[in-house]
Amino acid sequence: MKHRDFLKQLQHDDIVAAIQSAEQKTSGEIRVFISRKNLDDAVATAQTQFDRLGMTKTKHRNGVLIFVAPRARQFAVIGDVAVHQKCGDVFWQALATEMTGHFKNGEFTAGIIHGIAKAGELLAAHFPPQAGAGNELPDQVEHD
Fold it and tell me: What is the pLDDT of residues 71-89, one digit of tens each?
């Protein structure tokens, strides 16, 4: 699928609203990045974007990135060190399977929102909101 077509299909306002809703229940941060590149390894590319987006600089190292590369038909969901310590690989694998079901049905916005909601639940369970802590990272969908 072409990058532009994929972006046009996404309901950006719904995705941003899902991020904002999830982040109200946690001190964690969730971001979504859509890549137009044809890549070989979504996880490695997601990690590069995670670093580039400054997600390793959150106070509690509790950021989650949902990275989607429609041209390559790949995606990855990764978390910073503190998040990964709480959930391990099993959580990420289960979430990827659930999101894949949405994506295979062409439900791209629903799949991303599902990932945001599940990541938000994980973050809320382990990283409760903190008084006076603001939003450390932007909520809009990023893309290259």
Answer: 999 999 999 999 989 998 8
Query: Is residue 140 assigned to a domain?
Result: no
Q: Give residue 12's domain range.
A: 3-129
Q: Please state, in angstroms and rounded to a whole number, the distance separating the CA atoms of residues 75 and 129.
A: 28
User: Is residue 42 in a domain?
Assistant: yes
In a domain, 141, yes or no: no
What are all long-range contacts of 101-109, with beta carbons under 8 Å and residues at least 24 apart? 103/75, 108/6, 108/9, 108/10, 108/68, 108/70, 109/9, 109/10, 109/11, 109/14, 109/15
- CA-closest candidate to residue 86, choices 122, 43, 130, 118: 122
The verdict on residue 136 lying in a domain is no
The CATH number given to whatever domain includes residue 55 is 3.10.310.50
What residues are paired with 119 via a beta bridge?
Answer: none
Structural domain total, the chain: 1
- Under a CB-based contact definition with an 8 Å cutoff, are residues 27 and 127 in contact? yes
Task: Give this prediction's pTM.
Answer: 0.95
Identity at 105, one-letter amino acid code: N
